[in-house]
Amino acid sequence: MKKVMVLCLTFLVVLGVIACEKEAGKVSGKIAWITSFDEALVAAEKKDKPIMIDFYADWCTWCHRLDNDTYSDDVVATKSKDFVNLKIDADASRDLVEKYRIRGLPTVLFLDHKGQEVHRMVGYKPPKDFLKEMDVALQNYKARHGG
User: Fold this and answer.
1) pTM of whole model > 0.70?
2) Interval 17-54: pLDDT, tens
3) In what order do the strands lie in the sheet with 84-89?
4) Contacts of residue 12, Cβ cutoff 8 Å, sequence gap at least 6
5) Strand locations in 57-106, DSSP E?
6) Structural domain boundaries, residue 42
7) Is residue 139 part of a domain?
8) Is residue 117 part of a domain?
9) What are the E-state strand segments in the chain?
10) Is residue 94 part of a domain?
């Protein structure tokens, strides 16, 4: 009986550790996302990269499709390394939803390190079209920041 209790406690501890690690850095598709807006701003300035924010909600079917189809694409995942990748739960971050006037999901915003919008994409896009949006965002960012 004691062995069973120890095993159960060990299992619960492992589950807790996994849950904490998952919350610290969300992974969808093949992209590792951070979940802190302030952390993203600091990283963007330090790395001189634009921020790609994926505003999503758990109930949003097209958000899941973006995760499953687009973010899992190898080329999209590779190009995402040109950005600081931030995933924001729109239901839990109403302040950012209001600040950036998010009216539909999914919305992907591309910002500079000061939080200024350089490009916006609303709705689902398959990998090929999403890559074009990423290219536009990079061009706009470079035009503003002399890259």
Assistant:
1) yes
2) 334 334 444 555 689 899 999 999 999 999 999 999 99
3) 84-89, 51-56, 107-111, 117-122
4) none
5) 84-89
6) 25-145
7) yes
8) yes
9) 27-28, 31-32, 51-56, 84-89, 107-111, 117-122
10) yes
Which amino acid, residue 51? I
Rounded to an integer, what distance in angstroms lies between the CA atom of residue 128 and that of residue 141?
A: 20
In a domain, residue 20? The reply is no
CATH number at residue 74: 3.40.30.10
3-state DSSP assignment of residue 85: strand
Question: By CB neighbour count within 10 A (0-12 exposed, 13-18 middle, 19+ buried), where does 99 fall?
Answer: exposed
- DSSP characters over 27-50: EETTEE-B--HHHHHHHHHHHT--
- What does the block give as tokens for 124? 């689902």
d(C-alpha 21, C-alpha 26), whole Å:
8
Which residues are annotated as catalytic? 60, 63
Which residue would you say has higher pLDDT here, 87 or 32?
87
CA proximity to 141, closest of 109, 114, 119: 119
Domain count, the chain: 1
Distance CA 62, CA 68 (A): 10
> Do 108 and 55 form a contact (C-beta atoms < 8 A)?
yes
